[in-house]
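Example: Trypsin-like peptidase.
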Amino acid sequence: MLRQLQRELSFLTQRFQKLCPLSFQQVAQQLCRLQLRRLTGGLLLMALVSSNGLLAQSTQDASQLFQSYQDRLFQIRTIDIASGSKASIGSGFAIDSEGTIATNYHVVSKYILHPDEYYLEALTFDKKKIPIDVISIDVVNDLALVKLDSPISKDFLSLAISEPQKGEQIFSLGNPRDLGMTVVPGTFNGRTAHSYYGRILFSGSVNPGMSGGPVINNKGEVIGVNVATSGNQISFLVPLDKLKQLLETGKSSEESLSEQAYDQLKTNQNLLMQRLFEGQWQPMALGDAQVIGELTGFISCWGESNKRREEQFNEVYRRCKNSEYIYIAPDFYTGIIEMEFFWYESEKLSNWQFYKMLNDSFASASAGNMAGEEHVTEFSCDDEFVQSDNSKHISKTIYCVREYKQFPGLYDVLFLSSTVNLQQKALVSHYTISGIEQKQAEQFLKRFMEQVQ
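Written out as structure tokens, the predicted fold is:
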């Protein structure tokens, strides 16, 4: 009986090998591959379902947030009195039950600067127009508090206790280009590098008209305020702590709006220049000259070299500048610090040609900030030839200042210097500082001249 079973098993084995000429190991391997393909396909399907689920969740969250808080959002309108039409728009949001709305300073700046030409109104989600007035501003951080003439709701947005974690999803709300209220999901990326004012980097599209709108977490709590964009999903927010500071101090201020702006500009510039003077001011070589290296963390520097064969000279330059400015008016910015150094060499140009090239370089220098004639005086300049105590090199220098008409005692400063007694070589130095007081300007000039050789 046993032998008969063995013969039948041997026959079946041989028959199987003829029909499927694979070893048991090969069969096992193919089965594993088949199972792996099934498993991989399943994982890809799960990932796709998960991704779609996250997108659907994000869309659902945004939709729910908008539906929950749309009655606390407003379009802030600046109306031209002569034409009766909108001159500019922005966004704002209710922050208490008494009709106080937070927005950007630049959204209401036309009215603040020219109250006889404009008035302000808020447009609700259901298209009601309500007059508003500005009660306090923070021109440095681009914030303003306005108040409805007649509060329409007791509901308002709560302020978060702390900032989100990096990578956390947040939602920007506002009215882009007068197209209607919009929710833009994005990512919280912390404070921007080289920032003196601590702006938040937001990976989402903050478009014109959304300025002053809230940015909220998934609990509906405000974590920042829309303020600016660089395009390509790179946007910037005013941090929540700046808004909290304005709420603590702004409502109790008895100063006029112009007095508030004046004091804020002076205080900020004093603190900024103090930080600048406390920097190391490390020297570095540029050609045969010594210039200023890194100044402080909120000023970044870049450099390049060019061999200009057609013009028959070589150029090496270094440029340092802060990346932020203070908006005062559409044609008036301040708070900018910029330094430039150019090293020129030539073996082919004649003396006359070389110094003509230097003169052209001088003529191309300008103030680092935009300022219309309505806001500043004409530049007043002094020029002279100077020789530093520790060098035989002679430089031609030009020092120019212009004063702010609305904020007397604050100036834009422009400085130019070029060595003139080097054989076919020259160092051209240039700096501009906007919104500085005279004492600070003189202190900066002295230290600059000591460092650059």
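The chain has two domains: 57-251, 264-451.
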